[in-house]
Amino acid sequence: MISTYMHLGHYDEAFSLFSEMALEGIKPTASTLISMLSACGRLASVERGKEIQKYIDQEMLFTNVTLALALVDMYAKFPDGGLWGALLSACKTHNNAELGIRIVKRAIECDPDNDGYYITISNLYDSIGMCEEAERMRNFMKERGVETAVAIGFI
């Protein structure tokens, strides 16, 4: 029903039904969550999207690749480093380097001057034995003129 509301562009009705489900203790399916994430992206409703991601994390659903990609698609509409960082953190927590690489590629599209993304993708490639790809990303970063931030430590 939620996906039908979404298909017809009745986003408020979809969110209302989703809320009613939660109040009644009905657990949403992955396809329902995907529909809701799609609505969040279309409506630029980052707060609702974060709530859905929190539920996904609590229920340990992040291993569902289709659901994880729906999160990536939603966050791609909100070029916010903190949001990308949350997704990358979840990938690290769940040892999902392949999904992390997909996320970082999207993050780089949104913020191509963020040195942290290039470093993260290089590290992810290294972690799964793709050393040539890691080196290619480091070189790509240099070619684009992206400078790494200097860390200052206090002893």
From TrEMBL:
Pfam families: E_motif, PPR_2. The keyword Metal-binding does not apply. It comes from the Eukaryota. Gene3D superfamilies: Tetratricopeptide repeat domain (1.25.40.10). InterPro entries: E_motif, PPR_At4g14850-like_plant, PPR_rpt, TPR-like_helical_dom_sf. Coiled coil: none annotated. PPR repeats lie at residues 1-28. Keywords: Repeat. This is Pentatricopeptide repeat-containing protein. It comes from Tanacetum coccineum.
